[in-house]
């Protein structure tokens, strides 16, 4: 059966689609159980809905809610509010800060808005997404201000990330990001193999950390900046443009106030937004978030801040 993929295309559609909690529950149900309900305990497909909205399995009697095992599990807030926040977040071209969300949705506290955004950022990357392919530029960069005495690929107190940018018909295609401990091949090569399809044409500078690529199933083109009369942004123009746009986004939307503990999730958000920048309807982004929300369990404030380890999924 084909994937259920239906979503409101405009905000007016959104308001019409989700007037009640029941509307939200039905939408989640259609996305979660595209091929019909399946009991999480015995895998039976026969069930009926109780007066409390629980699915009661005919076979084993197990009862489960539509939001059990999802991002929404245990929420004390209406699903309509969750849906409204998700729609608002994906509708912001440059993303949203916690303060902006607090003001837009009239949250009582900044902490609540911050936590909701953190939860949403953690589901923006779809497991098993397609690998980059074709011509792909790869480079590293630091996030954070300049530090006295720190040169080259030394990290200091800055955050080092590696970036991959795919070429699509001469233009920038999809992007990938990862925080790394250092610029060694031990950090760089796994990022490449995890994110770029075999036999792709990978373009990097002459840094030794990329040297093992010659033993992998890639075509590796090295552009030596020191032996060229061109600057790095001329030799690797696409990845340097993305790096520039990313830093501008972090400074503009978030005023650069992103901690190392959470930076990967901000990178995930930027990747989610950039890779869907050509989507004609914001509703498609809304649908993707809901789709990924129903496959991932809720995470608590303590788990986000690190006070409590994340439980196994």
How would you characterize this protein structure?
- The strands form two sheets. Strands 6-5-4-7-8 form a five-stranded mixed beta sheet, with helices on both faces.
- Helices cover 37% and strands 14% of the residues.
- The chain is α/β, with parallel strands linked by helices and 313 residues long.
- About 2% of the residues have low confidence.
- The protein is built from eleven helices and eight strands.
- The two termini are 27 Å apart.
- Among the domains are: 90 residues, no CATH class; 124 residues, Nucleotidyltransferase, domain 5, CATH 3.30.420.10.
Main beta sheet: 5 strands, mixed
Please give the CATH architecture of the domain at 135-258.
2-Layer Sandwich
Portion of residues in beta strands equals 5-15%
Q: CATH homologous superfamily name of the domain at 135-258?
A: Ribonuclease H-like superfamily/Ribonuclease H
CATH class of the domain at 135-258: Alpha Beta
Helix proportion range: 25-40%
Topology:
Layout (H helix, E strand, L loop, with lengths): L10 H7 L3 H12 L14 E3 L5 E3 L5 E2 L14 H13 L6 H8 L4 H12 L13 E9 L15 E10 L2 E9 L5 H11 L5 E4 L14 E4 L9 H4 L1 H18 L8 H13 L6 H12 L7 H5 L8
Parallel strand pairs: 4-7, 7-8
Antiparallel strand pairs: 1-2, 2-3, 4-5, 5-6
Helix pairs in contact: 3-10, 4-5
